[in-house]
Amino acid sequence: MAIKPKQKAPGMSRELTSLYLENQTIPVSLDHFQAKPKFGSRAERWVWRGFKSSARSDDLALYHWTKASETYTDYFYARYNAKTKPYDYTDEEYDKCIEPLDKGWSRVETDYLLYLCKQFDLRFVVIHDRYYSHPDCPSTGVVPERTLEDLKERYYAICRALIQHRAGEDARDPDDLPLQATNKLADDLALLKFDKAKEQERKQYLEALFMRTKDEIEEEEILITEARRIEANERRLIQEREMLLQSHCMFEPAPTTTTISSIKVQFAQASDSVPLLQSNSASASAGDTTPKGRKGAPDSSDTPSARPMKKQKSVHGVASAVRTKAGAAASKAQSAGAQSPGARPLGFGAGEMAGPSSVAASSLERRSMSPLRGGLFGGIKQERSEGESQFGAVSFATEEHLVNPAIVQVEAADLGDIIVAQRDSRLGPGVFLRSDKLHPIPKNKLESVKQFMEQLSLNCPNTIWPRPVMATAAVCDRFDSLQATIIPLLECKKTADKLETEIQVLRARKRMLVESIGEDKTEEALSKLPPFDPSKVVSTRAVTPSIAETPVASNRQHNRKGSTASTRKKARE
Amino acid sequence: MPTYGGDEVNALVIDVGSTWTRAGFAGEDMPKAYFPSRVGYIESELELIEAADDPKETTAADIDVEMAESGEDKRETPVTNGDRRKQKTRKYFVGDTESATWRAGMEIGGPLEHGLVKDWDIYEKIWEYAFKSRLRVQPEEHPVMVSEAAWNTSSLRTRLIELAFEKFNCPAFYVCKTPVLAAFGTGKHTGLVVDVGGEMASACAVYEGFCLTKTVCKQEIGGELISSQLLEQLKKDFDYEPTPIFDIESKAPVDIRQKPVVHRYNREGTTASYLQEMRLRIMQEFKETACEVIERSYDSNNVNSKPLKPFEFPDGFNLSVGAMRYALPEILFNPSQFMVSRPKQLENESPLMGIHDIAHKSLMASDVDLRPQLLNNVVIAGGSTLFPGFNDRFPAMLQDSYPGSRIKLYAPSTNTERKVTAWLGGSVLASLGTFHQLWISRAEYDEHGASIVDKKCQ
Ligand SMILES: Nc1ncnc2c1ncn2[C@@H]1O[C@H](COP(=O)(O)OP(=O)(O)O)[C@@H](O)[C@H]1O
Q: I need a surface site. Which of A407, A559, B332, B351 has the fewest CB within 10 A?
């Protein structure tokens, strides 16, 4: 089939063009093979030639065909004759460091073991297999029924002993060795570590795993799928919550105010910008409904009411505005509701109210209906229902220890004594999550803290900053204290590293000094130095903040005490 | 130099099995010679007169003259009978046609028993026939690579190396265990090798080219057992014993399952072993055309629903084979249930193992760390694994024992290659450039003696 070559786009290879223009067969260039006999050159001569290999201990000559022109000094494949070099010992070494290791092994048997190691290139499976049937097996002195682990243990014990011994002969002070050298020794020793008991245990487990019956495997598979399902669910949950968190963050812009009056002021201000804020909150709660419903929240009315609620949201902004401005009407409505027992039915009670206030009430109802995880609306309610102090007190009594509000009494001329839950100054107005109350991690530490938590295999779904998955009060508390430990710990590590390098540098200097002026003189010079001054060290150490002194920790302490916002502010400053 | 690692030194590779022998040049992908290991021999007693003082010379001369075609030798077993010395001589007939040709008084015998060389004369004749008559080479000019059973003994190996250096004057020699070669022939250096040949079924773990001797597990069930059981089954079911071609003068067509109408020669001097051998060769054909292994576990309903296969024996007897063609190969998996009668060699074995049991036993004898790797590389070799359906059935049986493990089967791709797997491995090994340092040379043999074979061929 002859294809007319398409117009070739400039700067594009033909193959690419034809891929680009679909339905085009890719042109394949036909390589017409043309055998061109080379008459000019003479045919290469091949000869049947004997060769000897350096890999052989005898001088067996085998024959193969080679080009007559080729000449070798050694057999080509002799270069692949690589042998492992297992450790070996001298008599003296044996007596000194191997003999005392294990009385169960005789010299004869140890020699034999090493011989096998060499012969089978440390393939312990084979060594073990042939241990008693090998033609070179000594007739006496070999303990019967050695296990594979016995052989390995012995061999590695010998290696460790030899390494240590030889490093010991190297009479330098380990402190004086460059760090890499000491590390290498440690690494070597670690590599050759063999724990027979562990190994046997491991094999037992493997054996059990290997001998699983069909039923066991089926059961395991079911469990695994179940676990997968749960994990997937959890992931979804976390994802949804993440989304929620993000939208929540968007509408928490306000700067902190600390006193009641400023709350009021701010609140008034806020009410001006209410339409904007509320629309945000509406979007937040839109995301809200799903997890709530799934979680089987107490209010089963939630799902059916989802649609009407949306409608509410559109009027919501107006509603709150109405409520705040004409607080009296609303408060009346709510105080009516407050009379009905318990906090929760309160909203419903209010909902029963007819008339203009029912709009406001319904928005309230929505709130009280959704005691979102961790008192999402706790703060906001407390603030906004200034009129009904008992309302706040009642409905959040259970959550008090979570939100830990400082109850503040404020004189207000027209309303009498008002008891207001004191908010954390950081959080600003509006709803917040309990996990928001965690002390923030300084930006520059964020990465390392996250890493640390990962190492602890703490599952922190939040990608921006660590946050517990299930932010109950207890968890938050532990989380906070964990953070408060990690940060100073990291600081300490940093300082320690610094000191380490300093020591290294000083050592290197000392070495250089020794090299250039000799040991004695160095000692002399060193002794002339001002005596070792611990305080100096301490001063360097002082860079390391002690745990109690870290900002976070101190913050926490204040927090515990439940001090007023102003002292906290001081602390922060 | 070539980059593929091969370097051919024109080595010879010979694998003498219990039923078939394979021999050829290293580096080739098929053995040049493939012939039955069972040879014919006629024994005669000679009275020794003058020349008896030096019987060896006679033998040597005989070989030179006659060996090329029929392979004749005289075994000297001086028997003192009073003051006269008598000598038993054997004339050997090796090769496909030679051993099958009818001769008065010709017995048939094999070199191996239980996988080990038992009759060194026959063994030697096989070598001679392979090298001189089939490959047409001078063994003095070629390194020789030989296979041996995984359970070969040190004394037999010693004899083997003596044979190679003393009798055949090989310049270099190497002996390698069959499972290792089979693994190499499949392109593996580690694996569980399951070999079901003519007389033996064996399994053994191979680790990086070393056969793990403690994992060797074997039993005398194989193709020949199935063949002889087939004969018995035919006798039991149809009261029929096949007549081999050599005895048929003429025959007439008969209806299905009817007694054959055959006119026999009834030749004088037909030996029992020869007759049996010829019958077994018919059964061999029967097995190849009709027998199958059922893919899933054997149950009679399943088997009876399978299509029948027509088969006609040389004497005209014909039948449509039904359940029988599945039942007899089943001996491989369930010997005690499916054997028609217990043969002599298995009388003392108890309990009888199926080949999956053999594989299982071998696997359990290996280190637990190794087992997953072994199961992942199960190499099957040997002619009796060629029954259709075997490749599905065997792993399924294994899988039942290890539901949690991944089992993967390896075998040469074609049937002809599978009959010569071990030989192939030898061919590959002996043509590797890096292998040539391992040969036992004549000089080494001279210096260290025969015991060097245990040192160098691990
Ligand atoms: N296609 C086949 N189907 C079934 N059995 C076969 C087939 N080909 C060969 N055999 C059997 O395989 C056996 C020979 O296998 P082989 O591996 O050569 O054994 P060995 O190495 O012991 O001589 C014989 O018993 C023969 O009957």
A: B351
